[in-house]
Amino acid sequence: MSLNLTHPPPPTAFPKSTTAHRRLFSVPATFPQLHRRNPPLISASATNGDQSRFLPDQSAIPRSRFAVKSVAAAEGSGSSIPDSNPKPAVNQTLKLATVFRLWYFHNVIFNIYNKKSLNVFPYPWFLATFQLFTGCIWMLANWSINRRFPKISKDPALFHTVGHISACVSFSKVAVSFTHVIKSAEPVFSVIFSSFLDEIYPLKVWLSILPIVFGCSLAAVTEVSFNLGGLSGAMISNFGFVLRNIYSKKSLQNFKEIDGLNLYGLISLVSFVYLLPVAILVEGSQWVGGYKNAIVAVGGRSMEFYGMVLCSGIFYHLYNQSSYQALDDISPLTFSVGNTMKRVVVIVATVLFFRNPVNPLNALGSGIAILGTFFCTLR
């Protein structure tokens, strides 16, 4: 028997079934390309020959079974893969809840010190100006440290000035509870003025604000002390603050680089410039004599008087700062609703602090107001 000593055929003569062997041993040559941060996307139609099969592309990147199904579902629906992580939404809700708590707490403290100051020093124009001045110092220090001085429209500052001085005048003439009863109608003004500015609300929104107003009014019915000046001041304050909220929200939407905190700082600064000369003109000549009477009223303890006035200024700025941080994420109507519920808290707190008589209707009115707020948020 003879042996066949002929050489095996050259590689080009290998049958097609051995192509997999050549592919197996050619992978290491292109393996480093797979470690690049952004491998080139090369399709077979863009190259010649079989080498294109060994270049990395998106389809060659291994995926888990879950990822493949998710991508397929997203491509089939024509939308991106939804984020299944609920933590950002939860964190935003917790942040907003914290801001609301601080808003309510600071407002209660402000109303107490503001009324105590007005009881011994009944000059609301001075007090309103000083409270804006305190906010200016606070924000100027903040901007100096951060080296950031934002710019914004002056419209919110004008309406804030009108609303603030009107409220202070009302506080000086009537009980705190009565002023807040009148100001509980703020959602009504919000709906009306927003409607004039091309925002349409359905009928259920108009109906839902009625129990809010009625409930807050009922909660403070035992504290009502009518005075025409106090009534007019509270109504004008509603007008000013609602328009301030609407234009502030527009400013936050038009100027994406500014947040609620810096927006209120600018409003305080411009409002102070508006109010100072008018305050001096209206009652500036009475401040020296009023100061002497105030020191006598507190028993000669001047530091006590200074502390009351200073605390009214600090907490006025803090509660407005918190409210503007809330305004970052809510609509003007929702802001007015939250402001109305804040009034229930303020009314109850001031009744307890100043030991005013309490009527069971207070609790009933608070419940009706809360229910009305619930229906208003379902709009």
UniProtKB/TrEMBL annotation:
Origin: domain of life: Eukaryota
UniProt topology in membrane: Multi-pass membrane protein
Keyword Membrane in record: yes
Location in or out of the cell: Membrane
Any one GO cellular component localisation term in the record: membrane
Pfam (any one): TPT
Phosphoprotein found in the keyword field: no
Domain Sugar phosphate transporter: 94-375
Keywords: Membrane, Transmembrane, Transmembrane helix
Transmembrane segments annotated in the record for this chain: 125-145, 203-220, 226-243, 263-282, 294-318
Descriptive protein name: Sugar phosphate transporter domain-containing protein
Organism placement in taxonomy: Eukaryota, Viridiplantae, Streptophyta, Embryophyta, Tracheophyta
